[in-house]
Amino acid sequence: MLRVGLTGGLATGKTFVGRALADLGCRLLSADELGHQALLPGAPAYLQAVEAFGGGILDAHGRIDRRKLGAVVFGDPEKLELLNSFVHPAVIAAEEQWMKSVQAEDPLSIAVVEAAILIETGSYRRFDKLVLTVCTDEQQIARAIKRDGLTRQEVLDRLKRQMPLEEKRRYADYVIDTSGEKDGTLAQVGRLYTDLRSLRV
Ligand SMILES: CC(C)(COP(=O)(O)OP(=O)(O)OC[C@H]1O[C@@H](n2cnc3c(N)ncnc32)[C@H](O)[C@@H]1O)[C@@H](O)C(=O)NCCC(=O)NCCS
Ligand SMILES: Nc1ncnc2c1ncn2[C@@H]1O[C@H](COP(=O)(O)OP(=O)(O)OP(=O)(O)O)[C@@H](O)[C@H]1O
Which Gene Ontology MF annotations are present (predicted)? Predict the structure, then answer.
């Protein structure tokens, strides 16, 4: 099995590239989704987050409102660090379990884990190959505003908490440039998939 980390800054096209790789036959796991599951009522990180940040992060049904929690943590590096310490252990454990089960079911597969901050956390070391998606800063901002309805300031606060893409390039085995049309991204993904297949062990 080949373990592939797929990372990139906010709204650079990780999810789009991950889905395209899955369409071509890769197995795919989203760490952002695991992070969301880790904050559901009943999960340990839910209680830790409510204790640390207070009832103001909850919606009317007692669930964590991620937009409210985002507003608290993305403006304050120490709070984000604390939230990371609640969420990341559960995410890493779930990723490792998933990779074990994929290895058992399909030992020749390409297992792709899509995660926003693989490099920042050092998690990139757990993968055989690292793929990075990039586009311009202005495109990141415009795409995040359009997709998530965030304000420009909310997007800038998130971007400030991420390593600049130029620095991330140093860690990447493959760079997918998503600054053009989606067809151009798909063509690059096709070439990437051919290459990854040739590396499968
Ligand atoms: C703060 C939370 C609740 C906001 O949720 P929301 O649904 O609004 O955003 P979502 O999770 O989809 O993240 C969107 C993007 O924000 C950026 N982002 C998210 N978490 C982080 C972080 N810890 N550091 C830097 N950027 C981050 C990434 O580019 C990510 O793709 C959520 O992002 C969170 O719990 N973050 C901390 C845990 C984490 O690191 N999750 C991401 C990978 S496991
Ligand atoms: N050429 C392109 N390649 C990929 N995505 C594009 C392209 N042009 C526009 N987009 C759009 O950019 C937006 C961001 O892409 P996507 O959601 O895949 O990013 P992401 O890196 O997963 O974001 P996040 O880190 O916030 O989860 C999407 O709405 C996507 O449709």
Answer: ATP binding; dephospho-CoA kinase activity
pLDDT in tens, 34-43: 999 999 999 9
Give the atom of ligand 1 at the shortest distance from the alpha carbon of 38: 35
| Mean pLDDT across 161-176 | 96
Which residues' Cβ are closer than 6 Å to ligand 1? 10, 31-32, 35, 39, 66-67, 69-70, 73, 80, 83-84, 87, 91, 115-117, 158, 161-162
- Number of domains the chain is built from: 1
What are the residue ranges of helices labelled H in the chain?
A: 14-24, 31-38, 44-53, 66-73, 77-105, 137-148, 152-160, 165-168, 182-199
Q: Give this prediction's pTM.
A: 0.96
Q: Find the 100 Cα to ligand 1 centroid distance in Å.
A: 25
**How much is the pLDDT for 200?**
77
**Are 159 and 9 within 8 A, CB to CB?**
yes
The arithmetic mean of pLDDT across residues 58-72, rounded, is 96
Range of the domain at 115: 2-199
- Provide the pLDDT for residue 201: 61
CATH number at residue 142: 3.40.50.300
